[in-house]
Design a protein that fits this description.
about 40% helix; 6-stranded parallel β-sheet; Rossmann fold; alpha/beta; about 10% strand; globular; 3 domains
Length: about 575
């Protein structure tokens, strides 16, 4: 589709890059010749940063220049557009004037979209355009933040909204269709409430900017990354949420329209990063670091907290690795993954999730296990790009050979490795009191597969993963944290997997990430002897009052594979 973007400022030029990465042709204009002249350099700088991380969607500098063209006049910008995006100043009068001019110049069937954050722009638009008018609100920078709010005008058909939603989803975005217009949508309203409280804490001397940011990063942000807000309520229990509301322990700040902390900063010319100082001291512009090295002294209502050097050492690396494939829900560019133990149970469920997400997957299984070939055949028949990687990870020679061959079969690129292979070594529970049943043979079996197998595969895959800036997920177990599981030998090896995750993670870093997931008791073949009473008792101990199924666990692995680096 041909995309016309009106406004080449902070959001406009970034949107042009996003649509270019998504494969669209873009025309860009601005009433400011200076802003329009800056746009190519800003786009190229962002594109080069994404490319360095392997995340530019294959868009070269030459491609960018070919796909995005600049125009001084509005008529030439919108002449062939199928979608026109207005990204100008958030004031009604300029928008109304622009919409009137666009009504005269843009094609009849073109979609008119506004990037407004808070304004109800539909009353500002010509009535005859409302059937093809929408709000398409992005978050800055849009090449990193995937959320896009979509709102149709009162006359916009659902089919048109779905057409736009599908286009954005194909670009790897997360479009959220609102039922009706609400100023700020969802995310901006939540951010506004948070900002109001943050300024109250600073104005009344309770906290510094550093302390507020540290509380957010090390507290709610960690949970929200995986659970959001409402799912957390289900996890902790809704009665607790109801009690918190009933207690009325929190009174929101009354909006006053200003902040003494903010007023003082602005009066001193501390306007933010571009000025070198804001709520933080950022230093010379060419040496800006995240987090900032210090917070300026003398701001009303606050004082500096702990030493910047100590705080910086504890601050997590929250850089996003923004994969931008047009089609892959896992947000990676045609990812290549390998998973050991992929013929049944959790491994099979993981393979299916990755394959359905657009990954090309090498599935490890024992050479004499017929389930491996059957799984590969079934997934291929369903249209997924998978291949067989037979081998025994419990064998010192065969495990590394299998990984090296899988990488070669995947074309030399490996983005993901899921170390899932594991064995309890027994078909029945061995309680801690039955030491005589913990034989040398049992120990050797679980050690070779559960612990050494993880190390061998990670070691063999490390060069390819570092080259692709990839990720490893090791499947540990809650048995390695607070219970022995099927036996003390099993629990010990799964505890070792946690250690093998924490310590080797320093080896591939920063090019590759290493994480682990530790599921609770999962219904699997080794529990065949369990009675229904025992299964029910086990489920009753769980927070969610049910036993984990193989299909439950892979999404946590996928979250680690595509998530942030800490």
């Amino acid at each position: 589709m041909n995309i016309a973007i009106i406004g080449a400022g902070l959001m406009g030029h970034a949107l042009a890059l996003v649509f270019a990465i998504g494969g669209h042709r873009v025309t860009l204009t601005d009433t400011s010749a200076e802003a329009l002249a800056r746009a190519p350099g800003l786009m190229e700088k962002a594109r080069a940063t994404l490319e360095a991380a392997g995340e530019a969607g294959g868009l070269s500098a030459e491609d960018l220049r070919a796909r995005v063209t600049l125009h001084e006049g509005l008529a030439a910008t919108v002449a062939e557009a199928g979608l026109v995006i207005e990204a100008i100043i958030e004031k009604p009068d300029p928008k109304r004037a622009l919409y009137a001019e666009l009504d005269r110049l843009m094609p009849e069937e073109a979609i008119l979209a506004s990037n407004t954050s808070y304004l109800d722009v539909f009353p500002l638009m010509p009535a005859r355009r409302l059937k093809r008018a929408i709000i398409m609100h992005w978050y800055t920078p849009p090449y990193l933040v995937d959320l896009v709010d979509l709102v149709g005008s009162p006359e916009c058909p659902e089919a048109l909204l779905e057409e736009v939603r599908a286009m954005l989803a194909a670009m790897g975005k997360v479009p959220l269709v609102m039922r009706r217009f609400l100023p700020g949508y969802i995310a901006n309203r939540l951010q506004s409430a948070l900002s109001l409280e943050c300024y109250r804490l600073m104005d009344e001397g309770y906290a510094t900017p550093q302390e507020i940011d540290e509380a957010i990063i090390h507290g709610p942000a960690l949970r929200m990354l995986l659970l959001g807000q409402m799912a957390k309520g289900d996890l902790t229990g809704l009665p607790l949420s109801a009690q918190a509301l009933a207690n009325r322990m929190y009174t929101p700040p009354t909006p006053s329209g200003h902040s003494t902390t903010l007023d003082a900063a602005l009066a001193e010319g501390r306007t933010g990063v571009m000025a070198g100082r804001g709520l933080y001291d950022w230093g010379p512009r060419e040496r800006i670091t995240i987090p900032p090295p210090s917070w300026p002294s003398g701001t009303a209502g606050c004082s500096p907290s702990s030493a910047p050097s100590a705080r910086s050492a504890r601050w997590p690396d929250t850089r996003i690795r923004p994969a931008r494939s047009p089609h892959d829900p896992l947000r990676t560019l045609r990812p290549h993954g390998a998973g050991d133990g992929g013929a049944s149970g959790i491994g099979l469920a993981t393979v299916k999730l990755l394959a359905e997400g657009g990954c090309r997957v090498a599935i490890n299984h024992l050479a004499d296990d017929p389930r491996g070939a059957q799984v590969v055949a079934e997934l291929r028949a369903a249209g997924h790009d998978v291949l067989s990687a037979p081998g025994n990870v419990g064998d010192a020679a065969d495990g590394p050979r299998m990984v090296e061959q899988a990488v070669a079969d995947l074309g030399g690129r490996l983005d993901f490795l899921v170390n899932n292979a594991g064995t309890p070594g027994t078909s029945s529970l061995i309680p801690p009191s039955a030491l005589e049943r913990l034989t040398e043979e049992l120990w050797q079996t679980v050690l070779q597969v559960n612990l050494l197998g993880v190390f061998r595969c990670a070691k063999a895959a490390a060069p390819a993963l570092k080259a692709a800036r990839g990720a490893i997920v090791n499947v540990a177990s809650i048995a390695g944290l607070d219970s022995p599981g099927s036996s003390m030998a099993y629990g010990a090896t799964k505890a070792g997997v946690v250690s093998l995750t924490k310590n080797p993670a320093r080896g591939p870093a920063p090019e590759a990430r290493v994480n682990a997931v530790a599921p609770g008791a999962v219904d699997s073949s080794w529990m065949v002897e369990w009675t229904e009473e025992r299964r029910a008792a086990s489920a009753n101990k769980a927070l969610l009052k049910r036993r984990c199924q193989p299909e439950d666990r892979p999404r946590s692995s996928a979250s680690c594979l595509r998530g942030r680096r800490w």
